[in-house]
Amino acid sequence: MTALDPDSAAPAARWDGRRVLFDVQHERQVVPCAVSPLVLRELAPGPCFKTKDILKCFVAARSQLEAAAQSKLQRRALPYPTPLTVWSSDLEDHAATLRMSARPAS
Known about the structure:
The protein has 3 helices and 5 strands, in the order ββββααβα. It is of the alpha+beta class. The protein has a single domain (2-90), classed as Double Stranded RNA Binding Domain (2-Layer Sandwich), CATH 3.30.160.140. Strands 1-2-3-4-5 form a 5-stranded mixed β-sheet. A hairpin with an 8-residue loop joins strand 1 and strand 2 (13-15).
């Protein structure tokens, strides 16, 4: 497993050969999460095929992925499936939630 920890405040992201594993904090718990390189390729510009490149793509998209994971966790009940997989649709759902909350109340 290959790890990359460019930000010492954030837990290291790990490549397990199939997906990037990372953790998010939710309700005082550490929740293991995962994202596929296909999702990363949609989010981050540049090459995303070698391990080093995949982890760089993850770092570039980390805030979006963590926000989508948090949004997904808020809609789920315990216990969470672990690792919680972040899909492209989760990113779209999170963006839709942000758009809805930004609308002025009528």
